[in-house]
Amino acid sequence: MKDKIVMISKKYSSLSRPHLLDKVSELGVNFEKYSGSCSQCTVAALREILGFEDVIVKVATSSCGGQAGLSTAACGGVIGGAIVLDYFLGRPAKMVSATQTIPQSMTELSRAMQASQSFCNKFIRQYGSILCPQVQEKIYGRSFNLQDPDDWKAFMDAGAHTDPTKCMSVVGNAARWALETLLDRML
Known about the structure:
8 helices; 60% helix; 0% strand
């Protein structure tokens, strides 16, 4: 059962699959460069291509920097990509019950989890982890405590939002891999 149909925005509908993937990656890099919040920028790039509701971008706001900037949890690009995958492939609310078992509910849950696992495995292959500190170690050679002002400055000085090979590339990859995962399952 598909709750949503993947519709490429009219602006991008003439692009081939490889060009769509390149475009969403480019958008992810640029959103991260100018706006920050790896989670939200991943979703924003995907929204540009897929045209879903603005509120989905909003709900991804603070899931960045290892969750709310705490530098301890999943990379925001992972969270943002998973949010969009769940938007299209997730188990519908009508299949979540506090009073009864609903036929097909676990099948829908499994389908969504398989898509997110495929997406996360791309992160693991590239960065060795889905966790923000380990992704930072891979791209910076160290991790940063984003709550510490000195470490925050070091993070920014290391090119967090100015070097396209740092966090900007992670967002570009997250947007690409999420769209790729979605297209593989829905088109």
